[in-house]
Amino acid sequence: MATDFVDVLIVGAGLSGIGAACHLQHKLPNKSYLILEGREAIGGTWDLFRYPGIRSDSDMYTLGYNFKPWNNPKAIADGPDIRSYIRETAREHGVTRHIRFQHRAVKAAWDSNSARWTVDVKRTDTGETIQIQCRFFLGCTGYYNYQAGYTPEFPGRERFQGEIIHPQQWPEDLDYAGKQVVVIGSGATAVTLIPAMAEKTGHITMLQRSPTYVASVPLKDKLANKLRRYLPDKLVYRLARTRNVGFQMAFYKLARTRPKAIRRLLLAQVRRQVGDDFDMKHFSPHYNPWDERLCAVPNGDLFKAIRRGQASVVTDHIKTFTEQGIRLQSGQELKADIIITATGLDLQLLGGMQLEVDGQPFDLSQTMNYKGVMFQDLPNFAMVFGYTNASWTLKADLTCEYLCRLWQLMDKRGMRQVTPRLTDGDVHEEPFVDFQSGYIKRALDKLPKQGNKSPWKLHQNYALDMAMLRFGEVDDGVVTFSNPVPA
């Protein structure tokens, strides 16, 4: 079997993978690389999800790359605009020619003698399996299963005579004009779907077990758009990005230190938009702000749909599906022609790929994450995992900058292998993500661990990560360099 070889193998051609390739090309132009993409298109999440209104709940001044200004007037962008931005970046930087589409990595085996990964790759177009070898493996696959979302077992599901749809498998030809629609869920997907579908449906109902904090944010950044008339795009982008990062960090810190005050602020904002006669129990969670991720709605579009009477919110538990809809524990029955299960993601790292180190299986869930980038005792391997409390790409950019510095140091020292080693006996394991969301809690046993102190601690803080990843010492006494280049 013929085997290709590259210095760096990137898996995933979404936001993270394209960004990683651009950083690599800019900082280390002599390194060879390939990107493997299991699907047929660039874009990852932003190409996969096609449900109505699909958008980011992070502003594009922080979700965009630090090297490519976002010039669209919309600060909160929809899926097609984000997909175009990613593809434009790939095209401008000449990355597209390095992508192999319909190539899905299924297994990666590290061999210390050759200091190489051998990756088994299944071609989804032909069905054949090929091998690619690399010095360094970089996972940019996101954190969920692309094949299917999470759907709980609903009693009586088979009785329902209408359509049941998960947003991750949205049918292109779905006709919901004039229909009665129930959306199960209260997260980002649900609060996006409701206003996007409301004007066409007969009525649309968000059915939730418990409320989520929902905040209205401006669709456009008026100040940034105005400044573009007088200042260069790159400067405006940098200023807006710095301001928004600072605001996000300050708001998150306030939410954690003064949760009651932030709760009052968020609920007061909702009250102003839904009106005095609305039952606020539907937007009054029992947890503190940022115990779960906040949902952002641009220009309060969800609240406007509710006030117009096109949408409603029901907080209750499902007893059973019926032929005509859903019967709730309270006895109320919601009539429905279409039920949308916006019930979350099925978390999965590396697309379910198997790992092996020197002939032995390696389980990521049994190891500890290092600097939010690499893993204990796993050589020449990194994964991009963005923030849960801020924009994904902020951490992705820092991760790629750090890896370029790491690779430069390896070349300078003539070493082929780098491995994080835990030698500090005072470090103990903690859950990888300190978040109460259901999709996180369901998957904690699949995720790696973090430590209780740096560099094994996930800060979830851009300033601390910048100090560590962009400016901190690469050789910190925790990573071990080995396997010298043969003379």
Which key phrases capture this entry?
487 residues; alpha/beta; FAD/NAD(P)-binding domain; 9-stranded mixed sheet; 5-stranded parallel sheet; 28% helix; 24% strand
Structure, explained:
- This protein has 487 residues and is of the alpha/beta class.
- The protein has two domains: 283 residues, FAD/NAD(P)-binding domain (3-Layer(bba) Sandwich); 185 residues, FAD/NAD(P)-binding domain (3-Layer(bba) Sandwich).
- The chain has twelve helices and 25 strands.
- The strands form seven sheets. Strands 1, 2, 3, 4, 5, 6, 17, 18 and 21 form a nine-stranded mixed sheet that branches. Strands 7-16-8-9-12 form a five-stranded parallel sheet. Strands 13-14-15 form a three-stranded antiparallel sheet, with no helix packed on it.
- A hairpin with a 2-residue loop joins strand 17 and strand 18.
- Helix 10 runs parallel beside helix 12.
- The longest helix has 25 residues.
CATH superfamily of the largest domain: FAD/NAD(P)-binding domain
Mean pLDDT: 94
Shape annotation: globular
Beta-strand percent range = 15-25%
CATH topology of the largest domain: FAD/NAD(P)-binding domain
Biggest sheet architecture: 9 strands, mixed
Overall tally of domains = 2
Radius of gyration: 23 Å
**How many beta-strand elements?**
25
CATH classification class of the largest domain: Alpha Beta
Number of helices: 12
